[in-house]
Amino acid sequence: MSALAQYLAGTGKSVSGSDRFFIPGEPNETKEKLEAEGIKCFLQDAAGIHASTNLVIASTAVEETNIEIQKAESLAIPILLPKERLQSEALPENPPPRPSCLISWITLAWGRA
Length: 113
Prior knowledge:
The chain has helices at residues 2-10, 29-36, 67-74, 82-87; strands at 14-18, 40-42, 56-57, 79-80, 105-109.
């Protein structure tokens, strides 16, 4: 998922995310690299998912019982697996610009970053 986050951030999208291995006080090379590229990283506690989140892209390793998946569902935020994201024709062409959020998944903000 970090490669997808990096790609999307590189295209100017506002991307943020979380991972179960982002642990407070413990160094994490992946997290440090993502943050150096402007990708905001969160603990996997749903703090990064908001009503203004446009889309959550979840790794297939993320369980349906994950607190972030549950929060996204409760806010009616679309949740896609990577293969669905890459193949989807149903994504809006001109959605309103809003900030994003994410995880070992990623939340992507469409529009102006």
